[in-house]
Write a sequence for this structure.
């Protein structure tokens, strides 16, 4: 059986892999194979919530995948439980339509697939769904892609370059060069409350982890980070008990919490590669770094990976183009990974003195507009 040959093989058709494929199709003539381990219809039904920055919305718009069904964030309120000090960000101060957007993973996946439909029949694109890659093996001038469903040897294709975009969740991954288990578990659901404040996103730090409420449709997407023991207790609660515990942790800014959808939970950790490129293979998105969900930066960082990589491959498939991509991503990755690693560690220090110091820092941050603008800019568009 003849082996299929491509210019670029993209492993993983989540939002990051799809975005990389779309940008390459818009800007190059390379022949692309897009491998997807999942059934696309299952991805479209995925109810998980994701946060998209203003910059990510702009990037998605450039590949025809925006607008999509999402709720805009107009205000961000950051505080810590039990101590003074808070800071707020308001969309009117930054000249953008929204500081960010909250959407369901399935809606983003569906919109990206709709954009990809424009290339149906294009000889440059080969979609390979429901196929698990078992190995990427490097030769002198190509990469061999092996799958669980292939020929007798398992070799199904070769490509000049490969992009690893199949990341998964922290607890599903092999360890990378930089790892840290935060000893925290995230509980996620969708909740409604008595007195919602539309457009407001809340990040409330506690010593066991941050609690985030993001505006979504008629309520809020909840991400409640806590110890594994407390997560087990809260997962076992009735809805009424859980909502009461949430109200105690968050406070009464929006009245009582009224309803919650089914809760899900997963452990949290940092797992980041020090090198994005190994020979002819580049890693992007969760394949390159899995972050703590604080500040909702994981997917946004991955989308920036995708765009910079695709731009670096516009004129050449030489491995030097991949090395250029890695250099271009170094500062943004270092700053974003560093910030999302520091914040949960810093706010987990239990001493009262540390709590007062954090409160003073939040209050001071709120009084320094230039610093707020710099931080807000990085949250919205990254470091370029």
């Amino acid at each position: 059986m003849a082996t299929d040959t491509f210019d670029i093989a993209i492993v993983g058709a989540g939002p990051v892999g799809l975005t990389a494929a779309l940008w390459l199709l818009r800007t190059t003539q390379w022949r692309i194979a897009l491998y997807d381990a999942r059934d696309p219809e299952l991805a479209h039904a995925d109810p998980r919530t994701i946060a998209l920055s203003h910059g990510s919305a702009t990037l998605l718009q450039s590949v025809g995948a925006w607008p999509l069904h999402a709720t805009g964030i107009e205000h961000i309120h950051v505080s810590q439980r039990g101590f003074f000090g808070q800071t707020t960000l308001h969309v009117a101060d930054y000249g953008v339509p929204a500081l960010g957007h909250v959407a369901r993973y399935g809606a983003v996946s569906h919109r990206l697939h709709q954009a990809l439909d424009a290339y149906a029949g294009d000889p440059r694109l080969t979609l390979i769904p429901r196929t698990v890659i078992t190995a990427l093996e490097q030769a002198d001038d190509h990469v061999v892609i092996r799958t669980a469903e292939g020929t007798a040897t398992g070799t199904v294709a070769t490509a000049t370059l490969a992009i690893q975009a199949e990341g998964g969740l922290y607890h599903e991954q092999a360890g990378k060069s930089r790892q840290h288990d935060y000893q925290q578990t995230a509980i996620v659901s969708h909740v409604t409350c008595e007195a919602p404040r539309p457009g407001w996103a809340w990040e409330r730090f506690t010593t066991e982890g941050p609690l985030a409420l993001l505006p979504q449709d008629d309520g809020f997407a909840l991400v409640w980070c806590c110890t594994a023991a407390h997560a087990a207790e809260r997962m076992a609660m009735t809805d009424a008990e859980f909502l009461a515990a949430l109200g105690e942790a968050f406070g009464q800014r929006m009245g009582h919490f009224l309803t919650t959808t089914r809760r899900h939970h997963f452990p949290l950790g940092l797992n980041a590669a020090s090198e994005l490129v190994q020979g002819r293979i580049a890693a992007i998105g969760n394949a390159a770094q899995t972050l703590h969900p604080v500040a909702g930066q994981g997917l946004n960082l991955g989308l920036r990976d995708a765009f910079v990589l695709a731009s670096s491959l516009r004129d050449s498939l030489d491995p030097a183009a991949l090395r250029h991509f890695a250099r271009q991503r170094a500062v943004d990755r270092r700053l974003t990974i560093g910030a999302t690693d520091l914040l949960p560690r810093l706010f987990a220090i239990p001493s009262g003195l540390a709590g007062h110091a954090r409160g003073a820092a939040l209050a001071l941050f709120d009084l320094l507009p230039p610093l707020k603008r710099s931080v807000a800019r990085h949250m919205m568009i990254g470091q370029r």
About this structure: The chain has a mean pLDDT of 93. DSSP finds ten helices and 20 strands in the chain. The longest strand covers residues 178-193. The first helix runs from residue 15 to 27.
